[in-house]
Structures are given as C-alpha cells and as structure tokens.
Amino acid sequence: MKYTVKWILYSLIILFLILHNDFWLWKSSQIVIGLPIGLLYHILFCLGTSLLMLFLVKYAWREK
C-alpha cells in the first residue's frame, strides 16, 4: 500500500511540473474575483503544491 502511495505522489510531482507553465492563460485578460486569471491560477497552484509537499513529507519521506 505504502509503495503505491509513493508512486502516486511521485506522479503528481511530474504533473505539477507540467502544469506549472500555464501557457493557455498567457494572453487572457479575464478577471475572476478581482484578480487576473493567471494570478489566481498561480495562487491555487501554490496551495496545491503546498498540499502535495505535506503529503510527500508525511507518506514518502524516507524513514530511518
């Protein structure tokens, strides 16, 4: 079970690396809740990355 969780988390790292460059929002001038959509995307991306790091430390950190 723990081995599967590690691979899922490692796969999520790769997904987050791909999603980091939001090229689909570069030319968008849309405003959502008072923020440009690109800025809102990166705020949510940072929150998601923080949660991923929390799970990585909790489940994938090497035990001594």
Structural class: mainly alpha
- Principal-axis shape: elongated
Rg, nearest Å:
15 Å
Termini gap: 19 Å
Major sheet size, sense and barrel closure: 2 strands, antiparallel
Number of helices: 2
- Strand % is 5-15%
Q: Uncertain spans, ≥5 residues at pLDDT below 50?
A: none
Detailed description of the structure:
The protein is mainly α and 64 residues long. The protein has one domain (2-60). Helix content is 67%, strand content 6%. It has helices at residues 2-20, 37-60; strands at residues 31-32, 35-36. Strand 1 and strand 2 form a beta hairpin. The two termini are 19 Å apart.
Question: Can you give me a brief rundown of this structure?
Answer:
With 64 residues, the protein is mainly alpha-helical. 67% of the residues lie in helices and 6% in strands. The model has no long low-confidence stretch (mean pLDDT 89).
Task: Please supply descriptive tags for the structure shown above.
64 residues
What's the arrangement of secondary structure elements?
Blueprint: H1 2-20, E1 31-32, E2 35-36, H2 37-60
Antiparallel strand pairs: 1-2
